[in-house]
Amino acid sequence: MTALRVLRAGPRTTLQDGGRDMLAHLGVPRAGAVDRRAMHQVNSAVGNSPTATVLESTLGGDELEADADMVVGVGGAAAEQVVRLRMGERLRIPRAEGGVYVYVAVAGGFDVAPVLGSRSRDTLSGLGPAPLQPGDVLTVGALSAPPPDVAPMRDDAVGERVPVFSGPHLGLVGRQLFAEFLSAQWTVTPAADRVAIRLSGPRLRPQVDGIDSEGVVPGAVQLPPDGQPVVLLANHPPTGGYPLIAVVAFAALPAVAQSRPGARLRFVEAAQPRYR
Amino acid sequence: MAVTAAPLGDAAVRCVVDDLAQAHALHAAVTDAQMPGVVNVVPTWRCVVVTVTDPVFVPSVLDFVVSVDVAAALPRPAREHQLTIHYDGEDLDDVAARCGIGVATFTERHSQSDYVVAFLGFAPGFAYLSGLPAALSVPRRATPRARVPAGSVGIADGVTGIYPAALPGGWQLIGHVDERLFDGQLTPPALLAPGDRVRFMPA
After folding, report:
1. How far is the alpha carbon of B110 from chain A, nearest alpha carbon, in Å?
2. Within 13 A of B8's CA, how many CA atoms are on the CB side?
3. Cα gap B153→B151, rounded to integer Å
4. Across the interface, do B189 and A215 touch by the CB < 8 Å criterion?
5. CA-to-CA distance for B39 and B31, rounded, in angstroms?
6. Does the distance separating the beta carbons of A248 and B123 come in below 8 Å?
7. DSSP A110
8. Strand, helix or coil for residue A26
9. Other C-beta atoms within 10 Å of B143: how many?
10. Which residues pair with B198 in a beta bridge?
11. How many CB atoms lie within 10 A of CB B147?
């Protein structure tokens, strides 16, 4: 059985895939890779399905040892590369540069037992495979990759400003808050994880403290009573009780998710596509 | 009134309906339709949010949800649960006093009411129940607890919540139930689902 042995792992190195679908109405977060584009890229580079299980390392620096010949792909917040590992060779996962999350795919995928249809570690509720630890042995799946089950994400370039759509609760909090959100410069605070990144900047003053709970989505920008926006990421809880003032455009979310604490973000209103 | 729907960002659709029953009807209709690209359908009080894997799937979801006649949709046969409750919550005495009644009267009225699972959220298996008599309603605690034990039954602002696991929480605790509310190894993993009916049976 082909496997990779974990020699060194950061405290926030986990396995991720496309996430748990159709369970949010039972309170289960979707979870899955924070940077879905990088997950697609590293999987495609080694011939896997785009949402095959990958290793997601926070900031990199982990070390793995191959117990057989295998091909791995590295990407995300590290230079994309495909590496052929010989039996006994070690892979040092590069330190993240210009981002947070580094991804590693292995041809055949990581084969761990799924929980509720996914091999993702849900870091909010603790479902799925435990964070990786030294000594863990990660079995590699069958080499014949299944056909892609989703189209790879388009690699739309994100400009200087992050495109956002206006949120659904501006009528409650005050429409001018959206303009204030767009005109300010925001700094990503250290309180960042797979659930959300928190922004610091001029205090926005919502006219309400909260709303009746509603379903939320990745990229939703919540405004708690402290007036500092929170951008939800892949591991967000299914519902939220704070007003949404904006939603990050789908194609821009990977870049936002990779923002490091201290990074400065500015937002611009995206053109709403005409559907009907 | 028909369903009002608009894109939420560019990879989700937010639908607004008149009431909880319509939200449950729309949740069921969208789920049953098994539309391509749909990865989550989340009902709440008057809202249903449908999330898709890619913006290309938004138009078909918009077209579908506005075609659903939620007012005419027949409710699914509701599942009924009888949960065994122990009225031993830390806040019970205080809650009854706030309501101006004795503990025995409070627990009798609480256990004689019919509840409906409005929605789940916050944590896996955490259910928000409607149906608390208005006379038993109290606000949240001023200071949340860092850890509320699994199985705890809390009330706040007219809603009853049941903690499936040990979690932080600000609800007024009136008791706990014996049943296990969430198990990731089971299908479905949650005991309760939106629309289910619940009775609390005193132990």
Report:
1. 23
2. 28
3. 6
4. no
5. 10
6. no
7. B
8. helix
9. 7
10. B81, B115
11. 9
Question: CA angle, corner A207, sides to A204 and A211, nearest 5?
Answer: 105
- For chain A positions 123-182, those within 8 Å of chain B (CB to CB) are 124-125, 127, 150-151, 153, 165, 168
Which residue matches tokens 């997950």? Answer: A39
Distance (Å, rounded) from C-alpha A229 to C-alpha A180?
A: 12
Put residue A19 in one of left, alpha, beta given phi > 0 → left and psi -120 to 50 → alpha: left
Whole-model pTM: value is: 0.94
CB under 8 Å to B53, separation ≥6 — which residues?
A150, B11, B37, B39
**Residue of chain B minimizing CA distance to A221:** B9
Instruction: Return per-residue pLDDT of chain A as tens, 276 residues.
Output: 799 999 999 999 999 999 999 999 999 999 999 999 999 999 999 999 999 999 999 999 999 999 999 999 999 999 999 999 999 999 999 999 989 999 999 999 999 999 999 999 999 999 999 999 999 999 998 755 544 444 555 555 556 899 999 999 999 999 999 999 999 999 999 999 999 999 999 999 999 989 999 999 999 999 999 999 999 999 999 999 999 999 999 999 999 999 999 999 999 999 877 665
